[in-house]
Protein 1
Amino acid sequence: MKEKIAADFREEIKHAFEPGAKVMSADRELRYCLELQRNRIAKRKLKYTEEMVHKGAFPEGLKNVRSWRDYHYETSWTVDYIDHNTTIQRDGLKTYRHGERQAIYETVVDVRDGEDVSGDDYCCPNCGAVSTIAELQEGCSHCGTSFKMSELYPKVANYFFVYDMSGRAEHMWLTVLKYGVYSLPVNFLMCVYVLYTQYGMTTLASYLLNPLMLMKLIMVMGVMLPIFGYFAWIFDAFRIAAKTTPVFFEVANARKKFALKMSMFCPEFTFENFVARMVSLFKIVAFSDNREELPTYSGRDLGTVFDNVVDISFLGSMSCKSVKERDGIVYVTGDVYVKTARDLGDRIKVKDEIYRIKAGRRKEAMFNTDFSISKNQCHSCGASFDALKTKKCPFCGSECQTENTDWVIYDIRNVEFELLIKRLLVAFIILFLIIIALLDTQGLM
Ligand SMILES: [Zn+2]
Ligand SMILES: [Zn+2]
């Protein structure tokens, strides 16, 4: 069942931004953020194409690469290896194209004990039509009545892509040759340099001007190509590793810190579930055009900072800064690492960004894994609407905020500059200490 949901998701996500698409393998928060993103893309008249082709040594990807169990849920990661190509087009916009070999990670959440009711019949209390529970997830298809119901697990709660450096043994020679071609200018300059320093200007000139000698030079370069390619590949891997290492150190402890601090307030929680929820809620806030009506956001006015964002790609890591309790609400603050794509009108700008998110949840809010379903209804006019998407009745405009029993975001801010200053300061202190040490060994102090 879990494997099927993960496979379904990989299929549905390819078409998630096409008009009318429904990603039913995703949980409702993720489904809603994909819907909002689809609306944002349509509003900006962009043609957004996702192409994901399964590649690699494992025919069906890897299941359960990691899994976590808490009191209620079983959360696991499923991985598949893909060639991922994204294209964003519009008239007057410089076409954006990005292709990369990636591993797609999916966070699959399942309840530990709970019966599967998705196939059971349910009679719509409004129009009397009979549908299965699964069919009612996006409301009654006959009359549009919306329901407040327990999630039909298993569902995909989060997903992210990681640059795939390995995992494809059959591609290694191709990779080396590709990097070899990239490093041809360096290869050529090295040969020219060797000829010049070893044999002088005359030999260099004879090689470059005589077709036969030039052929010889090209042959040497051909022999050197895989060697240069191999070193370039290793260098690139190091460059990528160096880029992600600081993040790795910062988040390596997050799971432990979160579990330890959270256990004082609410033990039945894994960090993975929390991260999945934070990423979805963050995307909902970013892609929403009516933030003040979102039941899951109660922070300040964010102005226009997210208005041109057309994609937010979670980079797989979140840190945990603090867990505090105040007035019966447990507040958790952490940094989320994302890659955003912004529509600047004439081009798409892609950038790595870090956002600090403060979220809270009522301490006494109960977990209930027993299935329940009820009609979503406006207190004032009786109309039915999806209470997850808006707290204001779209028909009569009255506030219908039911008491929030789940996570709510209280603040979102970009902390890149702050972290940059912090890192510069650390680098400066290290440099200062090295200089002091050097001066000391030189006997100058
Ligand atoms: Zn109905
Ligand atoms: Zn109403």
Protein 2
Amino acid sequence: MRPFVTLTFAQSLDGCIAARAGQPTKISGAESAAFTHQLRAEHDAVLVGVGTVISDDPRLTVRYAHGSNPRPVVLDSRLRIPLTSKLLAAPALPAVILTTSSGSQQLQLLIESVGAHVHRIAANDDGHVDLHAALDHLSSLGIRRLMVEGGAMVIAAFLQSELVDRLIVTVAPVLLGGLHALEFSPRSSKLPKLRNVVHRTLGDDIVIEAETRW
Ligand SMILES: NC(=O)c1ccc[n+]([C@@H]2O[C@H](COP(=O)([O-])OP(=O)(O)OC[C@H]3O[C@@H](n4cnc5c(N)ncnc54)[C@H](OP(=O)(O)O)[C@@H]3O)[C@@H](O)[C@H]2O)c1
């Protein structure tokens, strides 16, 4: 059985997750950042795309809440992850890098020499890591609950593949005019209906949580 997938991101009032593509942008406040860290602690692994690693250099750890660090997972079809990224250079747990046959052996050896694990997964028609195969693989590693933290292409890919079970979106009272959360997403007819919607206010932000129905 594939892992249960929680898709989560922070967006501005105008639906943006960054001021522009590739630019790290602080959107949510301290209270919702702590909530995100609590969510990380409730998952076995946290997954991002290599685009987010290159632009934001996240640690994906639990620092503003109590609990264990989840296993960091990166979708990286061509092994573009920088060796200097915090996930490789200063890991709390060894990162799992999911790549395809396009990632070179030499890069794999370099990445593994710093302690991360590289796993080769089937590619989809676009040459990216196939998400169904990726989730099956993560399941075989014992990952039951997966948190997907973005960025825009990865959000779209999980929605497109109908692989989201729960959606948690933090909406912050700022306007960005930048990279939209659903920039690359499928047509509205392909998006899930939301049910059992709950929302809470954390500082100045509103966090909306819902189950998906496909
Ligand atoms: N506000 C938030 O909550 C939040 C959270 C995270 C990120 N962000 C923002 O999002 C932006 C980065 O987003 P992004 O769209 O550029 O990058 P991304 O979604 O983080 O990563 C996209 C890359 O992942 C790789 N990938 C591998 N398999 C894939 C698959 N099946 N589907 C999609 N991608 C796959 C692809 O590179 P290869 O082809 O080389 O594998 C692709 O270019 C940054 O500006 C960051 O600040 C915001």
